[in-house]
Amino acid sequence: MPIEKNKVVSFHYKLIEGDSELEQSHDGDPMSFLFGHGGIMSGLEESMAGRDSGDHFSVTVPPEKAYGYRSPDAVQRIPIKHFGARNRKLKRGDVVPLQTSQGPLDVTILKVGKFMADVDANHPLAGRTLTFDIDIVDVRDATEEEIAHGHAHGPGGHDH
Ligand code: ZN
Prior knowledge:
Blueprint: E1 7-17, E2 20-24, E3 31-34, H1 42-48, E4 56-61, E5 75-79, E6 95-100, E7 103-112, E8 116-120, E9 130-141, H2 144-149
Antiparallel strand pairs: 1-2, 1-3, 1-9, 4-9, 5-8, 6-7, 7-8
Bound molecules: zinc ion (ZN).
Zinc ion is lined by residues 149, 151, 153, 158, 160.
């Protein structure tokens, strides 16, 4: 059945930038999401409309439909003690969770001083144009419960 609002879509992906593969899902369960509810990046969701199981395609997604643009405000100098038990091992390039008032946020360590660390809270893929290689594995009707929750349940979906 073609992909449209309130279908649960299962898919595998490869995320490619230039000649390198950054991520892929083929080693595990496919990803599942409820179409039409904003559960995945908009550029990817739009590219799947009307597709069907067995379809294979590539889509190139600009930053505004992927992880957004980099914000200079997201680069900050913060006390190392805010990292808790991890504070002795921090080094440049590490991606570590930081407790914020909005909950844990993954940040990339830019520089470590004695008491302070410079961190970048931008998503590592922010500002980048991404190409995805997509395999649609399955399309099914969502249950009423999934539609009420606004997300897919089961393998590759929401587990609660
Ligand atoms: Zn749910």
